[in-house]
Predict the structure of ATP-dependent 6-phosphofructokinase.
Amino acid sequence: MASSDGDSKMKIVHGPAGYILEDVPHLTDYAPDLPTYPNPLRSNPAYSVVKQYFVHMDDTVPQKVVVHKDSPRGVHFRRAGPRQKVYFKSDDVRACIVTCGGLCPGLNTVIREIVCGLSYMYGVNKVLGIDGGYRGFYAKNTITLTPKVVNDIHKRGGTILGTSRGGHDTGKIVDSIQDRGINQVYIIGGDGTQRGAAVIYEEVKRRGLKVAIAGIPKTIDNDIPVIDKSFGFDTAVEEAQRAINAAHVEAESVENGIGVVKLMGRYCGFIAMYATLASRDVDCCLIPESPFFLEGKGGLFEFIQRRLKENGHMVIVIAEGAGQDLLTESLQDMHQKDASGNKLLQDVGLWISHRIKDHFAKTNKLAITLKYIDPTYMIRAIPSNASDNVYCTLLAQSAVHGAMAGYTGFTSGLVNGRQTYIPFNRITEKMNKVVITDRMWARLLSSTNQPSFLDPKDVEEASKVEQPPTQLLEGDNCKNLDEAHKEEPLTQLL
């Protein structure tokens, strides 16, 4: 295998048959003479019976899962897991954990499993929790974390460490890391948080510090690229169904009842789409990726009237970022952003509810009863379900294995069902979005029997886009961030 530095931000390894490994940094890249030590797991009774427990140094995971017989081997990522040798003595490790950005089911589970993984697998007993996000490094006290302290936190929603948006000051953060003697940093957060982690890694590298920086991607919207899904997403979809069921009960209990449910999805509609497919009670799903219009032939109002005449009731699910372009300029200011650099959205659920009511009141065609349900913060604040708890455990343990093995500047993530280490820039360069020309969106349209709301011009434009004979699963569902998101200054993180 020939190795080359194809990108200053990423280690690239080329091999035969079009094999490309997008590798993650290692402490020895800038500190080549570091000593190694036998992995403590060799003498751990829990793992001594496991055959081939240690991951081979050449193990990688392909990003493409669908290939043709003549396809190149394509992009791979380094497989996560424990290595035979580690670069930290257990007694020397002083780790810290920080959570940033909005809440998400599973945060406490990840915290718990990092602490327990470090303690039970590697004998590490010095773990600090950073209070209140990035600014907690220099503005707040730390919290001592032990297996006893975190024993049952996975049963609670939120994060015991507290969180915040913004507050990223690279110099102050790395100064704090250095002053406290921290040599492993676990950063849990979304794409902005991971961008911040990448900057911290670069500063740590510039100072030549033996500090491993490991990220764990967090977004309830499932908008992080490359990885199969983000933790908390399954829980969010499951909880969203409860709101949809409530809306359905309300709607079918009255004549011409309409239930409107607003779900998370600032830039993408994955929660709305999957909750709709799972519930089977939704008549119309509106997401940011699929434009819609209200009035005229083929519009939403016409569809609502037709569905009410057919069934006597209906349920509408709308993602929070859908239809923002339809709100009048007097209701929105596209230039306003929160501390994370995300544009502030108007309540599209409340707005569309008022528009539906006003339309049918003016036309006098139908007397409707509309109920609006917004479960957003209830969903974000619940503990993770069984599936997400298992996933959080794998993510946390993979991050611990990677840091102990000397890897740094990486995000732990699931790719094609395998735990991997992914370079920070691959996580932050694009945003995962629903592709409305993909089969999954077609499945939703056939399930709800709703119109696509695309006018003939939109259909014509979509047909002009050349599609590959097979959509090889290498980021086909990833779209570049919109211009407003791309232009965020680096200080607007999380």
